[in-house]
Amino acid sequence: MSDPGARGPSVPAPPSEPAGTVPDVPTPSAPDLPIPAAAFALAAMPRPPVAHPFPPSTGTPPAPPSEPAAVPTAARALGGPTGLGTTALSLAGAGAVAPSEPASVSEPAGVSEPASVSEPVIVSAPAIAPDPQRVLGGPSGLGTAALSLASLALTSHRPPPEPAPAPPAEGQAVPGLYHHPVPEPDPVRVEEVSRRIKRWAEDEVRLYPEEWEGQFDGFSIGRYMVGCHPDAPTVDHLMIAARLMVAENAVDDCYCEDHGGSPVGLGGRLLLAHTALDPLHTTQEYAPAWEESLGSDPPRRAYRSAMDYFVRMATPSQADRFRHDMARLHLGYLAEAAWAETDHDPEVWEYLAMRQFNNFRPCPTITDTVGGYELPADLHARPEMQRVIALAGNATTIVNDLYSYTKELASPGKHLNLPVVLAERRQLSERDAYLKAVEIHNELMHSFEAAAAELAARCPLPSVVRFLKGVAAWVDGNHDWHRTNTYRYSLPDFW
């Protein structure tokens, strides 16, 4: 279902793919996530198989989107289903009466690139919530004893992960960093996302000059998005996340940091760019000037195009949620810029507060859109869910601080990151400050996992559990991308 808000000029339809290109492959309708994504000891199942080579496209246009099912209120959702055999499933308390979760959720029609690449995917949810003992206890049978959620829901760490396939030779994890190995991202999907995102960046939004091409390739966006979203039903869904990630990185580079960015005047640039995400509603006299401004620089072209694709596949509540988190991100950019202009050296707690806004939060918050389903707005907005998402964003952002530490030290000017702030404020050596930052990351990760486990135990609705597992998959995939991206990152010699 498209976002009804005014979008300004629409993005031109992408050109047809040349003959012989690789069409998309839908995965099974209810995919599960690999074992490392079971961050809170939920039942773990293998990654859904992906058939190769891709079957030829039929050329049939996608069906129109189905009307979304009514979103339950918080009391109804937490009350659980009703009917024969569901008495024990009430989450809202004795005597609560609530209808069951809809039998199925129709995904909004995807926007293919090209238009005939993939068929629409329908993700079905169970008509009745599963027995709590089965959800909280995890699977049964030989070799499943360690997967019990009931015994681990309130603990501060996960059980040891089961062995994953051997990681590639390049890339080393930060010693002592709490993380989980993930399976190698599907190479066919990685190649296809990489091909499509470069075509979008070059041909549709003219994102970078020729001399930046190596940096774009070195970002490895295909590996990044496939690793972070293992339950995405199609490559079209992965492209939603890929475009938004590239657009956000372009704004950061061109407005704030590496490629001509400056704290001076940043607020004005960010506000105008934000109107590409959250459209301006103005008079007829001034609307054309705003519409023309959306194509005035690469970051705004990227924001506008990526958001246009996103709202075609997202529900209105998912789109509004994303806009909110992007406003949070821009607020974090402005705080860091203000400190740079006033030569303010933040306290450690101030830096961590800034990083809760200037962080990866917009990425995991769209995990359901990329997965082809929707976490209802009232469940996403619950304080317990917001805490899980915030902790995930905070932990993954410290991962970025740790892996980009040497890169930022070698760059001109002063770059704030957690080890630098710790060294200044705690009077620590560079090595001790870096190791302290690792400890802070690990505590955030344990808090994230404990909060996710507690929420899954209290509200074992299928959409909640799947969303929590998707956020955990994003956390693990984000670390794996940082670990393996030796083009961008290298570790300090502290061990």
Account of the protein in words:
The structure is a single chain. With 495 residues, the chain is mostly helical. 46% of the residues lie in helices and 1% in strands. It is built from 18 helices and two strands. A two-stranded antiparallel sheet has the order 1-2. α3 packs across α6 (235-256). The longest helix has 29 residues, at 430-458. The chain is globular, with a radius of gyration of 22 Å.
Gyration radius over CA: 22 Å
| Number of helices, counting only DSSP H or I runs of 4 residues or more | 18
Strand arrangement, major sheet: 1-2
Number of strands: 2
Residues in helix, %: 40-55%
Structural class by helix and strand composition: mainly alpha
The major beta sheet can be summarized as: 2 strands, antiparallel
What would you call the shape?
globular
Distance between the termini: 52 Å
Which segments are poorly predicted (pLDDT under 50) over 5 or more consecutive residues? 1-23, 25-39, 41-167
Which key phrases capture this entry?
single chain, 495 residues, mainly alpha, two-stranded antiparallel ribbon, 18 helices, 46% helix
Summarize the entry for a quick read.
By secondary structure, this protein is an all-alpha fold. The protein has helices spanning 74-79, 132-137, 187-204, 213-218, 221-228, 235-256, 266-274, 287-293, 298-313, 316-342, 348-357, 367-371, 377-380, 383-403, 405-409, 418-425, 430-458, 462-484; strands at residues 104-105, 123-124.
